[in-house]
Amino acid sequence: MKKMNIFLNLVGLMFLGLFVEPVFADTLSHANTSWILTSTVLVLFMTLPGLALFYAGLVRSKNVLSVLMQCFALTCTISVLWVVYLYSWTFGDGGSLNAFVGNFDNLFLSSLTASDLSGDIPETVFAMFQLTFAIITPALIVGGFAERMKFSAMLVFSIIWMTFVYAPICHMVWGGGWLGELGLLDFAGGTVVHVNAGIAALVAAVMLRERKGFPSTPMPPHNLAMTVTGASMLWVGWFGFNAGSALAADQSAGMAMLVTHIGAATGSLAWMFREWMKQGKPSVLGIVTGMVAGLGTITPASGFVGPMGALIIGISAGLICYEATQYIKKVLMIDDSLDVFPVHGVGGILGTILTGIFASSMYGGVGLDGSISQQVIIQIIGVIFTIVWCGIFTYVALKFTDNLVGLRISDENEETGIDLTEHGEKGYNN
Q: Mind listing the domains of the chain with CATH numbers?
């Protein structure tokens, strides 16, 4: 009988081992690693093909390849720079300068090994996940100067901008810098991605001036079906963007995914109904743009707010970002070609500030260390600092690029289209 009990216990342990994740001394979590690997693919999917198709459909047919090329080339360029120095510059310990930047101790990822951990996931996975955020941010800026910037200028500007704007702001918020230490709540990139990209796009649009014919000549999207396809991919990919930012397969990721979906849906509907009331018809372009506004606005709040907060944030995004697009184009007469600032910039600002309110347990959020007013002040400080830093260094980067290679294509090339003049190809042969 004793031998039989031992045998049954051994069989039971073997059976249990099929379902229980082993715990090792290095505290690696296979579940969390699997989720962040999946999220990394989803976030890269947002840029290629999601954002690339979304933007490509919005421009005129003579410039469709230029936008696809810019998104593809940025994916390659930022990936190489991330390995060479950007990862170290963003997430390294900057010593006396750590409040603002990292270091160059890990150039070429020379000290990164397969066994290194970041929390309970491999650091290789963390580095790759963060790389996908670094890729999509300059790709978003492309919409601000679409149809009029030289390809060479786009590359030079993006390299400078990533070095002096994205990497420092990302370090300050997520890499141990002063904004994170101050208590700024930015779960997935309200300041790091959306405010940064929005301000940069606005500065670029002003410095490059409007496209020929703006605003008197209509410049409608050449392929809305392509735009809707890209927008749908963005919606799906955004779950990795926000829920993946929990860096774990846990309750925080679950809530982030739920509120992300709510923000997208309510942003879409709010924009659609506002446009319907004002223009007389609900447009396809409007509902997908509202979706992007809702997603961008819920991004900083996604791991901190509950469903009620997400509903209000999403509705606010649809209404306010819609009005911002009208104001930028019709009152300020700024040709932000694909509405990067009014959608991502305004959405990022709005979402970052509202996070300070709806993260409170009073509204179903995770709770705050201090009062709502204290947190809102911290959020506003983070937004203002990001706007100032990004605005100054974006201007400097554009001026340097202009002096080096020139920013804008010639009037003749603009008339012909960037596809032919910059790349020697056409998107359509008919």
A: 28-423 (1.10.3430.10)
